[in-house]
Design goal:
75 residues, mainly alpha, 56% helix, DNA binding, Integrase/recombinase
């Protein structure tokens, strides 16, 4: 099977993401990738987006806990 949608760059980013998930060692990963900052490495492996999505999934304004207020999903 010959796939054209997966290249070396995809594999590199995937390695970085999983390496970080297992070790949480962003400094070493930064050196492996030869990046100039941890922020660049986090953005490169999609860590910032991953964190944002996880935090937003559990986010609530707490309005639904106020008496007499009901929030509907209808738009």
């Amino acid at each position: 099977m010959h796939r054209t949608d997966i290249g070396t760059h995809t594999l590199r980013k995937t390695f970085g993401y999983h390496y970080y998930q297992q070790t949480h060692d962003i400094g070493t990963l930064m050196m492996i990738f030869n990046h100039s900052s941890e922020a660049i490495t986090k953005r490169y492996i999609g860590l910032n987006q991953d964190v944002i999505l996880k935090q937003m999934a559990g986010f609530s304004l707490g309005i639904d806990m106020l008496p007499g207020i009901k929030i509907s999903d209808k738009r």
